[in-house]
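User: Okay, second chain of the day. Same drill as before: sequence in, structure tokens out.
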Amino acid sequence: MSSPPVITPVEMLADAKKQLGFPRIVAICGSTRFMAEMAEAELRETYAEPRGNIVVKPGCDLKTPHPLWSDPVEAEALKVRLDELHRSKILLADEVLVVGDYIGDSTRAEIAYARSLGKPVRFTHPAVDPDA
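Assistant: Same drill. Structure tokens below.
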């Protein structure tokens, strides 16, 4: 007698999204220097046919001064926390869209993480794909 197949949490998540009829989920990645381009990409992905995509993207730009991250020590801890949060967004997503014509270390790590999960990765500027 064989054991039933083991279903991973990632497979359970994908199955739940399918059963719930979720639209595709797109995680936008890229340097926060491209926040305006990310907002445009979010608009286009949300509008996309046939029924739009759910979009998740960075919610904080630590390069722009703000009272929440004015203390350098707190800002560094926040960056670590935001990086972990963004990896969760990538895990939740069906695909990743990398915005911008520059890939830094953080974005390169996000691309590698997405690909390690088998997520498709698209680029607004395909020439910057580190694996191209």
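The first strand starts at residue 25 and ends at 29.

User: Thanks, on to the next one.
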